[in-house]
Amino acid sequence: MDGNALIAKILKSEGVEWMACFPSNPLIEAVAKEGIRPIAFRHERGAVMAADGFSRTSGPNRFGVVAVQNQAGAENALGGIAQAAADNIPILFLPGGNPLHQLAVRPNYNVSDNYRGVVKHVEAVYRADMLVNVMRRAFAGLRNGAPGPMVVELTSDVVASDTPLALEDYTSPRAAVHVPSNGDIKDAAQKLVDAKRPLLWVGGGVLAAAATEELRELAELLAAPVFTTMQGKSAIDERHPLALGAGSGATTGPADAWLDSCDVMAALGSSLVRTPYAQAVRQDAFIIHNTNNPTEIDKEEIAGIGLVGDTKLTLQLLLDEVKALIGDTPRNSSAIAEEIATIRAQWLEEWTPLLTSDTQPLNTYRVIQEINDNIDLENSIVTHDAGAPRDSIIPFFNATTPHSYVGWGKTTHLGFGIPLMIGAKLANPDRFCLNLMGDGAFGMSGTDIETAARSKVAITTVLLNNGGMATYPGGFPTAREQYGVSHMIGDYAQIAEGMGATGITVKTPTELADALKAAQKHNTEGDTVLIDVHSDMEGRRSRFTRP
Ligand SMILES: Cc1ncc(C[n+]2csc(CCOP(=O)(O)OP(=O)(O)O)c2C)c(N)n1
Ligand SMILES: [Mg+2]
Q: Residues 399, 523: one domain?
């Protein structure tokens, strides 16, 4: 048996069901022989992003795997890998490598050298008799500690050669979880119980750890409002009376009110990153910071108490300790809930004219409202793309069940939406998967509509066709007026049709509801859909300034 065959058997034994790829790597043939489905994307970055989307929308311990070829393939994949790293997403990346004797020879692209700064761990296979250890380390890295991309460079002649090893030599690594100390848990519980205006700040780690039930219980026990970051969106049902909504750079009125006034803030499963794509943390608040990555503690925000550990187990310990202090009965939350509802109503009053706008071309917010009103929110997965779609949708889309929304993007790669939803659909075949993207974003990954259509991984893309980049209003006027920079044209419904999908053009607001319903029907039948919405250059965002 050669090395590729052994790797394929190990992947199979680890429960891998499919592998994203493009297009030449001996592993593709080897996994196919094991009954693992290879899905070929139209470019490497798309393949990586689909693997990322699969990991994001799966429960713990289900990972996206991707294989590409050496040189150009490895180079082209880097954007997707960098984004998975920035968002702390565990994926297994298996690029082809050069032969051993050329690994260090210019201009051969050496993955081990070049990827080091953007992955959790990277190593090359130097000998066929080290494969079980390499793969064990890779899976251990996926399961343990701070999540991120694990990379194994498949040195071509080594993995093609016979290995003395068999699957029986491989030991699947068991996850080793850790929790904060009793003392820190006690202190954190006391702080939360004594707080006058507590806030639970929820990151993507709550979703990744499948800790959404524990989160809801803690919020109800303390009568503490819940704010979610972009990646945390959908960790709490946004119809819950204590839910404040989510925030990228834009957020909701209630979220702004609590971010501006909380005295104790428990950040749960969050890396507390300062970025244009996150809300600012109140500097006067006492911060309790839970993350499974110790290097995130005291990075930018000062943690009064650091709770380093698995978010689900940490929440369970916190629940026990809070109950020991105040008993099992949740505090009365009616006054807080009423305050949230009042602020929400005031905030929505300002935005309702846009959410219900009848203008033609369509207003972006009307498109978002139609999505809210015409899909089965509990059984869908929705995501944004970089640019105006992100900051427009984050405050207004109604996330309900865990993963019904995928918030992403600390380095925010344009075009992620399509491959992300392909990965999400593979992880959740019974859910309706929709991405809202701009015409600029389509240029980055639009051809993967063909991947979805061909592979019968049916997704729906709602494309805001505004002929430009609403995200840069007023930017580069000379370049725009004299040279047409940032103007774009496209009949995207027709392009989708040309790639085997169903294209629907929407020019008036009233057509969109029917288009969304048709899309859901088409998706159920295995057909991918693109809805090309003629939309405006809406530049308003629900942003707030806080001191
Ligand atoms: C790979 C990459 N390059 C550049 C950017 C910066 N960027 C963010 S939004 C955007 C334009 C988005 O235009 P479009 O998709 O049409 O959305 P709109 O803002 O018009 O709704 C760009 C270039 C990015 N996010 N990713
Ligand atoms: Mg645009």
A: yes
